[in-house]
Design goal:
Elements lengths: L1 H24 L4 H22 L9 H24 L4 H9 L3 H13 L4 H23 L5 H4 L3 H15 L5 H11 L2 H12 L8 H25 L4 H12 L5 H9 L3 H29 L3
Helix pairs in contact: 1-5, 1-10, 1-14, 2-6, 2-8, 2-9, 2-10, 3-4, 3-6, 3-11, 3-12, 4-11, 5-6, 5-10, 5-12, 11-12, 11-14, 12-14, 13-14
Length: 295
C-alpha cells in the first residue's frame, strides 16, 4: 500500500517541485500559462474524453450528483462555523466549496488509478468548474451575468463532447489521438503552475489558512460518506469521490477574489496553506482508499 501511495504522490510532488524550483530563480508568466491551459489544452482533453465512445457517460450521472452535493453542501455545513468565528462569508466559504479538482484532482486520480479514472476525473472537474462560475460568482456578486461567465472554452468543449458521445458518431482515431496528446499537456502543466503558485504563500493569516486546511477536506469527506452509502457507485467512482472530497481549495479562488477585491490576501492564505496541508491529507486518504480495496 505504501508503494501505491508513493507511486501516486511522488510524481505530483516532483512536478510541482520543479515548478517551485523554476519559479524560485525565474519569473514565469503563470497567468499566461494558466490562460493557455484553460483555454486550449484543458478543453481539448475534456472534449476528447467526453467524445470517446468507450466512455459511457450515462454511468457517471450519480457521480456528478454526488460531486454537486459535496461542493454545495460544504458551504452549508461550514456556514455555522463561519458565523461563530465571525469570518467574512464571501472570503471563507467559496474556497471551502470549490476545490482543486483541476491542478491536483486530475493528476492525482490519473496517477493513482490509471487512465481508467480519467473520465471520472473530468466529470468531477466539469461539475466543480460549472458550479464555481455560476454559484461561486453569484456568492461574490449577485449581479454577475451568469450567462456571460459561462461563455468559457471548457463549457463549449463539454457540450460538444457530450453531443458527440450521445449521438454515437465515432470520431477518427487520428483526431482523438491528436486531441489526447495536446490535452495531455494540461496535467503536468497544472502541477507545474501549482508549484510556482506555492511560492506566493502568505503566512500572515496562517491561523485562517490552517482552519481552511482542516475544514475543507473534513466537510467534503463528511458529505461524501452518505452519498457513497446511498448511491450505487462502482468502485473506481467511489475512490474518485473520496479523493475529490478531500481536495484543497482551487487556486482559482484567489484569482476570483482578486478580481472582486474580496480580501485577496486572506483568500491566498486559505488557498495556498490548504494546498500545503494536502501534502499530509492526500496520502492519508489514498491510503484508506487503497486499504478499502475500491480499485
Amino acid at each position: 500500500m505504501l508503494a501505491q501511495i508513493l507511486s501516486t504522490m511522488l510524481p505530483v510532488f516532483l512536478i510541482a517541485g520543479c515548478g517551485a524550483l523554476y519559479g524560485r530563480y525565474r519569473t514565469p508568466d503563470i497567468q499566461g500559462l494558466n490562460t493557455l491551459n484553460m483555454e486550449l489544452f484543458v478543453p481539448m482533453l475534456v472534449f476528447a474524453v467526453l467524445a470517446d465512445q468507450q466512455a459511457p457517460l450515462q454511468e457517471y450521472t450519480s457521480l456528478a450528483l454526488a460531486a454537486t452535493v459535496v461542493v454545495l453542501g460544504s458551504g452549508i455545513i461550514l456556514y455555522p462555523l463561519a458565523r461563530v468565528l465571525k469570518l467574512n462569508l464571501k472570503t471563507f466559504l467559496p474556497p471551502m466549496m470549490f476545490n482543486n479538482s483541476g491542478n491536483m484532482g486530475i493528476p492525482v486520480l490519473v496517477f493513482a488509478f490509471g487512465d481508467a479514472a480519467l473520465p471520472a476525473a473530468i466529470v468531477l472537474f466539469i461539475v466543480e468548474m460549472l458550479l464555481h462560475f455560476s454559484v461561486g460568482l453569484y456568492m461574490l456578486d449577485p449581479h454577475t451575468s451568469i450567462l456571460k461567465r459561462l461563455r468559457l472554452p471548457i463549457v463549449f468543449a463539454s457540450i460538444a463532447g457530450l453531443t458527440v458521445n450521445v449521438s454515437g458518431v465515432p470520431l477518427p482515431e487520428w483526431l482523438l489521438e491528436t486531441l489526447n496528446m495536446l490535452g495531455g499537456v494540461c496535467i503536468p502543466l497544472m502541477l507545474f503552475a501549482l508549484g510556482v503558485r506555492m511560492l506566493d504563500v502568505d503566512f500572515s493569516d496562517w491561523k485562517l489558512g490552517i482552519l481552511g486546511a482542516i475544514a475543507c477536506p473534513a466537510s467534503g469527506l463528511i458529505l461524501a460518506w452518505p452519498m457513497i452509502a446511498v448511491l450505487d457507485l462502482p468502485g473506481l467512482q467511489v475512490a474518485a469521490l473520496w479523493v475529490f472530497a478531500a481536495l484543497p481549495p482551487a487556486v482559482l479562488n484567489y484569482m476570483v477574489a482578486e478580481q472582486y477585491q474580496q480580501e485577496p490576501h486572506k483568500v491566498a492564505s486559505l488557498v495556498l496553506i490548504s494546498n500545503l496541508g494536502s501534502l499530509v491529507v492526500m496520502p492519508i486518504v489514498l491510503g484508506l482508499v487503497f486499504a478499502a480495496g475500491y480499485v
